Amino acid sequence: MKKKIEQLLIDLKFKGMVKTFDEQLALAEKNGLSVYEVIYNLLAEELRFRQERSMTYRLQIARLPWDWTLNSFPFDLQPGVRKSRMMTLSGLDFINRRENIVFHGKTGVGKTGLAVGILRQAIIAGYRGRFYNVQDLLDQLYASLADRSTPKLLNALCRYDLLLLDELGYLTLKKEQ
């Protein structure tokens, strides 16, 4: 019967349950868990597995250039950056209010690092986001005019909760753009 249940879990693509099935059966035998507790534990593991896989996928889609977080940002080396303000932004309330954030300042003060840290925080919190170099995005939009895929690209952009647009100051537009 055990093999049949395992095969059903595989067929149903319950990968989290498959990974912990033997462990949960052993716990049930050792600790005398009820059927309800075993089922609950298996379902909880499946949920945890799916949430983790979803977050990993969102991080891949975001195309973050670095694995930076706000916790790894060297606030002590950047006296012009207020840590308390950045931590407030990391609460992500601005997303629900549909507000924009613009970081501006001299080169090398950490604007991109801070923005990437906030985007990473949003993705971990369950939001969908994407990092774009503005020049690359505009080139992609311009190219989409040729193959008539602009509506598809714009719809894809609209599905993100958060877009990080970087290097706006280095933007060069061609006459046609």
Overview in brief:
It is built from 8 helices and 2 strands, in the order ααααααβααβ. It has helices at residues 2-11, 15-31, 35-62, 83-89, 93-96, 111-124, 134-146, 150-158; strands at 129-133, 162-166.
What would you say this structure looks like, in words?
This protein has helices at residues 2-11, 15-31, 35-62, 83-89, 93-96, 111-124, 134-146, 150-158, and strands at 129-133, 162-166. It has two domains: 2-61, no CATH class; 70-170, Rossmann fold (3-Layer(aba) Sandwich), CATH 3.40.50.300. With 177 residues, it is mainly α. The protein starts with a helix and ends in an 11-residue tail after the last strand.
Number-wise, the strands total: 2
| SSE arrangement, N to C | HHHHHHEHHE
Overall spatial form: elongated
Largest sheet: 2 strands, parallel
Q: What is the CATH topology classification name of the largest domain?
A: Rossmann fold
Distance between the first and last residues' Cα = 65 Å
The residue ranges in which pLDDT falls below 50 over 5 or more consecutive positions are: none
SSE class: mainly alpha
CATH class of the largest domain: Alpha Beta
Structural domains: how many:
2
CATH homology superfamily of the largest domain: P-loop containing nucleotide triphosphate hydrolases
In DSSP terms, counting alpha (H) and pi (I) runs of 4 or more, how many helices? 8
How much helix, percentage-wise, in residues?
55-70%
* Mean pLDDT rating: 90
